[in-house]
Amino acid sequence: MDLNKSIKKAKRKQLVTISCVSIIIFLTMSGMLVFILDKVATNNYHELDQSLFTYQTIASPNTQIDSQVIANSSILGGEVVTNQSKNIDGYMVPWSSLRSKYSVLGNEIDYNELLPSWYHSSKNSYEYNRQTKQKVATFYNPAIENYYDGVKNELEELKNMDDSLAEVAISFDQPYLYSEVKKMFPENVNVVWLYLFSEERDESQGPAGMPVYGFQLSVDEENRIFDAEADKDYFFSSFETYISPTLNKEMAAFIQDNQNKKVDDLEVLGVMVTGQVKNLTALKDKPFVRGSSIGVTVPMVSYITPEK
């Protein structure tokens, strides 16, 4: 009888021990799983965060990131909300906000809002921002001869916009060295972004959707360009990071041929300029202008002074 009690007691003790060990193993494994999932999701977040800043650095003419924060976060993933703006000669204008996603499975940039849409009718053809509905300025590659609807010159249209500011994409008739570009524009116009590269595609049937690559020129409080050499170095290091997963030979060749050049020796295909429309219209007859495309425009107000 005592033997049976001892056996039952031993079995209960063994059962309790097994249960406790199982619970401990379950909790430990659950904790490890949570840790691993969180680690993977966090790594994918950091990759997404860097990718967004990288793209903005190399392919977003006159666009800046004002804030980039996490939303709806969990151990499995979340969203990265990116708020952007444009500087139009000292006037800050809202641009599209992006909601990119990351998870334990990877990450995904919000290209639907990042890339422009295209409006086309019998009277109009232009790209526009999906959120703000503002027109997006278009660059023309000097190596591409035929564009759908031709190469437009819209600087003339600015004369009808009194007391306004604008950004305009100026596409050159041929590549010019940056040392030459610095002498091509008057002091009352801001040269804010350099267009250096885009892939050559057939544009005769409509926009091929090829991004333009280049970099923003940093300015000081007096609105003077102060370190274009550093801007160039940061552009090429970011561009290398951007293309590393793609193995794009055309982009790799561009980097190889240009990254060790001084900024003054870089060939520039066009520029984004900003300023008062009365100053920008003076560029319309310049011989180096192959095409010009108006982007964001904003009316002047008495309580904000244009930079130029």
UniProtKB/TrEMBL annotation:
The chain crosses the membrane at residues 15-37. It comes from the Bacteria. Residues 5-92 form the Sigma factor regulator N-terminal domain. Coiled coil: none annotated. Residues 159-296 form the Sigma factor regulator C-terminal domain. InterPro entries: Sigma_reg_C_dom (IPR025672), Sigma_reg_N (IPR029101). Keywords: Membrane, Transmembrane, Transmembrane helix. This is Sigma factor regulator C-terminal domain-containing protein. It comes from Candidatus Enterococcus clewellii.
